Amino acid sequence: ACAFAGLWNCVTINPLNIAAGVWMMLNAFVLFLCEAPFCCQFIEFANAVSARADRLRAWQKAAFYCGMAVFPVMLSLTLTTLFGNAIAFATGVLYGLSALGKKGDAISYARIHQQQKQMDEELTGTLEGQA
């Protein structure tokens, strides 16, 4: 979607639209290299780029993908750039959510809260005994 929208964005005479379209096509190429290297088997360095991208932490991928997707929108705010970069931005958001970790259950949170409450009561009791 990003590549097709970028190509469509380049069919104009406005230089900012052309720059945004070229950036979007570059985004699509980088996303293919990092996330789906089997689509780029004809490129010799595709596996090396994919291996390097796999070593990045989830929050680093999130920042990279969201930053890549926001730049063309800042260059040229059109419907084509918004829809074209939506998938790249969503990929970054999903990596960001995975960096936050999974949601804990209420039972373990209640148990932790109960332990902290008991420790606070014990600490308060020892402080009152010393005074």
Structural overview:
The chain has helices at about 1-10, 15-35, 45-55, 60-75, 80-100, 105-130. The protein is mainly alpha-helical and about 130 residues long. It has six helices and no strands. Helix 1 runs antiparallel to helix 2. The chain starts with a helix and ends with a helix. It folds into two domains: about 1-75, no CATH class; about 80-130. This is FLOWR protein.
Give the termini separation. 70 Å
Please report which band the strand proportion falls in: under 5%, 5-15%, 15-25%, 25-35%, 35-45% or over 45%: under 5%
Please give the share of residues in helix: over 70%
**H/E element sequence:** HHHHHH
Unreliable stretches (pLDDT < 50, length at least 5) are none
Number of strands: 0
Task: Kindly report the oligomeric state of this protein.
Answer: single chain
What is the 3D shape? elongated
Tally of DSSP helical segments: 6
Mean pLDDT: 81
From the alpha carbons, calculate the radius of gyration and give it in angstroms. 24 Å
Q: State the major sheet.
A: none
Structural class: mainly alpha
